[in-house]
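Weekly modeling sync, notes
Attendees: AB, CL, MP (scribe)

Item 1: holo prediction request
CL wants a bound-state model with magnesium ion before deciding which constructs to order. AB pointed out that an apo prediction alone won't tell us much about the pocket. Agreed to run with the ligand included and paste results into these notes for async review.

Input as submitted:
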Amino acid sequence: MKRKTRPLARILSIRNRLTRRYRLFELRSDFIDEEIAVKKARGNGTCRTIAICNQKGGVGKTVTAINLSARLAAGGFRTLLIDLDPQGHSGLGLGLDIDRLEHSVYDVLVNGRYSAREAIIPLRSNLEILPSNIDLASAELELARFKKRERRLKRVIEGLRESYDYIVIDCPPSVGILTVNALVASQIAIVPVTPSRLPIQSLSRVTEVLEALKESLLLDITVFYLITLFDRRPKEARSRRENLEQTHGQHLLKTVVRNNTRLDTATRKGLPIFDYDRDCPGSQDYAALAEEIIALESGQDRGADRRILE
Ligand SMILES: Nc1ncnc2c1ncn2[C@@H]1O[C@H](COP(=O)(O)OP(=O)(O)OP(=O)(O)O)[C@@H](O)[C@H]1O
Ligand SMILES: [Mg+2]
């Protein structure tokens, strides 16, 4: 006679089979508590906007925007990634053919011919993108004729707030009108910095620009610095990191993103790191970053130790 399986045991066995096959529940489970905590802390439906910016190129803005968004989405947060860079790297890094977009952020922000909803592309569960391409290159010039040109993205986002928990904006490597639009629309700015390459003076310049913008536009934004592409071997990088801790300690995120070639390969393949290699250092670091951002929101202690997963 066939033995009857009890319902709970059956559910657990199906869950284990699915976990083994898709690693689905594992990915979500470490997030569920934070998700509940955050939603309790700030009430359902409050959308937070995060601009990833630095006028310096190649510091990991796009890789951070992609993987932070993907991790938040995997944690159950409805997430929109807005690509504000005419290079369109966020879309590329998530597998889009950006030369064949029907509509892009340009149509929404600059010529206003389409609504954001018409241009947004769903990518996977909880993750959508408002993509960009070379069309946006003329934005700096074209936006100059508008009054309140620095508030255009904010207005677009106001119409979307109900639909998302997080909006992450990937900025171009300049502090022109596009980056200013991102900062005006955001509550948090994350400035990726690379201690192995960055002269400290260049970070001071970013800080000065941000402070000047905060004052002149009365921005209500908190700035955090994120160490990326960190390679602890050169002594110089370690001492620069210590220097950053002394000068920007309060505003330096505890997560440190290590230099990890898997991140580069995943982006070239059009995948978030979690879909490419979920155990590599890049996955661990961006998972830690998402947790830290969530903890910021829920007012939890970010912990005393700088988070370098070694
Ligand atoms: N932690 C990392 N480890 C290894 N490679 C990385 C890491 N972060 C970014 N990269 C690689 O470094 C290069 C620059 O990264 P990314 O495109 O994210 O920088 P960016 O600041 O967005 O550049 P831009 O200013 O041109 O938009 C890319 O080739 C990317 O794949
Ligand atoms: Mg970029």
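Recorded for review: Residues 57-63, 85, 87, 89, 173, 228-229, 257, 259-261, 263-264, 267 surround adenosine-5'-triphosphate (ligand 1) (CB under 6 Å).
Action items: CL to compare against the apo run; MP to circulate these notes.
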